[in-house]
């Protein structure tokens, strides 16, 4: 049985306006993906579970968080989905950070057309000096390297919520060779083999 918008709305409690925004974002993604590689084309048929729900599940883990940074935001997962779902929350803002200009132009189009509480930053994640409540990323790099990008955000008090696949436990073990990490692995709502790495703190071992 396919997982569609009705199931997504039932699982997340998304408003009708958020559902309309997500539907339009899906259309923008399909259009852009035809000319540049944002996501695997075969995954678009499973948009509502592979991309939308996979992103939205983070909100249940940080229900009071208003400020987020999505590192390597790429196609907008999880950042654009989070911005859509946080659109009506006072003070909410998502920073969409990516080093590639063409991906940033796609993100700008989505942010502008959907009037999202988000800012697109064309630059290296580790060069930014943003203070946010949550730093997140999906499909950017192995966890050890990802933490190099995210370290400044964590040092400024952010919690890390990183969407990872079946190698999450091994990646966390590898990252702990260079850092003292307070973390837990949370099962993904969309894939029994995937995990969300929740990091409260990470300190480089000198």
UniProtKB/TrEMBL annotation:
Main location: cytoplasm
SUPFAM superfamilies: S-adenosyl-L-methionine-dependent methyltransferases
Entry keyword Glycoprotein: no
Documented EC number(s): 2.1.1.170
A Pfam short name: GidB
Localization in the cell: Cytoplasm
Function: Specifically methylates the N7 position of guanine in position 527 of 16S rRNA.
Protein name: Ribosomal RNA small subunit methyltransferase G
Species whose genome carries this gene: Peiella sedimenti
Source lineage: Bacteria, Pseudomonadati, Pseudomonadota, Alphaproteobacteria, Caulobacterales
């Amino acid at each position: 049985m396919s997982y569609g918008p009705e199931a997504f709305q039932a699982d997340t409690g998304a408003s009708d306006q958020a559902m309309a925004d997500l539907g339009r974002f899906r259309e923008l993604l399909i259009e852009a993906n035809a000319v540049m590689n944002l996501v695997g084309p075969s995954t678009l048929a499973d948009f509502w579970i592979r991309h939308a729900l996979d992103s939205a599940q983070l909100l249940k883990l940080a229900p009071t968080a208003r400020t987020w940074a999505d590192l390597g935001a790429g196609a907008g997962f999880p950042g654009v989905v989070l911005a859509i779902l946080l659109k009506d929350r006072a003070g909410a803002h998502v920073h969409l950070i990516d080093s590639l200009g063409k991906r940033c132009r796609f993100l700008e189009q989505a942010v502008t057309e959907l009037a999202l509480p988000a800012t697109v930053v064309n630059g290296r994640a580790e060069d930014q000096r943003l203070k946010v409540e949550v730093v997140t990323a999906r499909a950017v790099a192995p966890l050890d390297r990802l933490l190099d990008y995210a370290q400044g955000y964590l040092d400024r008090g952010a919690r890390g919520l990183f969407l990872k696949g079946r190698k999450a436990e091994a990646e966390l073990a590898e990252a702990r060779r260079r850092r003292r990490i307070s973390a837990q692995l949370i099962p993904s709502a969309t894939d029994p083999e995937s995990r969300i790495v929740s990091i409260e703190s990470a300190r480089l071992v000198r």
